[in-house]
Amino acid sequence: MKIGLGLPTSFPSDQGQLVMEWARRADAAGFSSLSLLDRLVYDNFDPLITLTAAAAVTERIRLMTAILLVPLHSAGILAKETASLDALSNGRLTLGVGVGNRKDDFLVAGTTHGDRGRRFDDQLAMMKRIWAGEDAGDGVGPVGPAPVQAGGPPLIFGGRSERALQRIAKWGQGYVTGSVSDVPGARATFDIAERVWREAGRAGKPLFVGSLTCAIGEAEAQATADAGQRYYSYQGGRPANAPGQPGSSPAANAATTPSTAAAILEKLKECEAAGMDEVFVRPAGVTNPDQVDRLAEAVL
């Protein structure tokens, strides 16, 4: 099982250089991939711009969105941006994609929420055409640049409904779960994805990617738990619960956030036993780049 690194959900705006330092250390340490989430109404950096900056200071580590909310974007512009990033990184981009759910993001993006699933399907078709060098539509011709990876960056899909998982078999290479706090639940969802994959006649099996919220150190685990609470608080400021931890307080979440090498390794072994191909360790609320080295020592 590969071990990737999730960037913190947000960095202080006056310390943007920390992003590049995290990327450099992750690349040197041997993590398989560097991942970043996508939100609009949140204090995170834009994922594609951030991963482009990371690409400039790294050589081998893969770059992944986990996940990019495609319906918030223009399909044509997004296809060009991602093909550009794929080319600039020499084919190191993987796109984790999904429809998104938070209505405030759609409001600020100036797009509609209720039809996001249908639009997502149309966008995927258009992006695939553009990446293949075909007519983008209505006779406008092709849109460059061509991605380094033939057919475009690999697509892995988030979501839990069967309709969402059917997109994996049609368009993608795998499934990414937002949290591995509930490993059996994540495995049950992947089983549906695998069944749909087989029914579609796809060879092999889809990739199974997870994300483990954790940090080395008690204070760092508390900061990570606090970041999770902030991230899942939305829609009028009403607190929402992180996946797999319904009703939990920040203190309780911190107590269940793995904070030692032994606890993190135990959880990773559970993920591997469940059949995951790659798991990101994600210290969501920690910006000190020393955390990269501490995690690398613990899990690589």
Would you mind describing this structure in some detail?
The chain is α/β, with parallel strands linked by helices and 300 residues long. The chain has one domain: TIM Barrel (Alpha-Beta Barrel), CATH 3.20.20. The chain is 44% helix and 14% strand. It is built from eleven helices and eight strands. It has an eight-stranded parallel barrel with strand order 1-2-3-4-5-6-7-8, surrounded by seven helices. Strand 6, helix 7 and strand 7 form a beta-alpha-beta unit. The longest helix is centred in the middle third of the chain and has 17 residues. The chain is globular. The protein starts with a strand and ends with a helix.
Defining traits:
300 residues, alpha/beta, TIM Barrel, eight-stranded parallel β-barrel, 11 helices, globular
Write the layout of secondary structure elements.
Blueprint: E1 2-6, H1 17-29, E2 33-36, H2 47-56, E3 62-69, H3 75-88, E4 93-98, H4 103-109, H5 116-131, E5 155-157, H6 162-171, E6 174-176, H7 183-199, E7 207-213, H8 218-231, H9 250-256, H10 261-273, E8 278-282, H11 290-299
Helix pairs in contact: 1-2, 2-3, 3-5, 6-7, 8-9, 10-11
Counting H and I runs of at least 4 residues, what is the number of helices?
11
Overall pLDDT metric: 91
Percent of residues in helices: 40-55%
Indicate the CATH topology: TIM Barrel
| Class per helix and strand makeup | alpha/beta
Main beta sheet: strand number and arrangement? 8 strands, parallel, barrel
Task: Give the radius of gyration.
Answer: 18 Å
Strand and helix order: EHEHEHEHHEHEHEHHHEH
Q: List how many beta strands DSSP finds.
A: 8
Number of structural domains: 1
Strands across the major sheet, in which order?
1-2-3-4-5-6-7-8
In the CATH scheme, the class would be: Alpha Beta
Dominant shape = globular
- Give the percentage of residues in beta strands: 5-15%
The CATH superfamily label reads Luciferase-like domain
CATH architecture annotation? Alpha-Beta Barrel
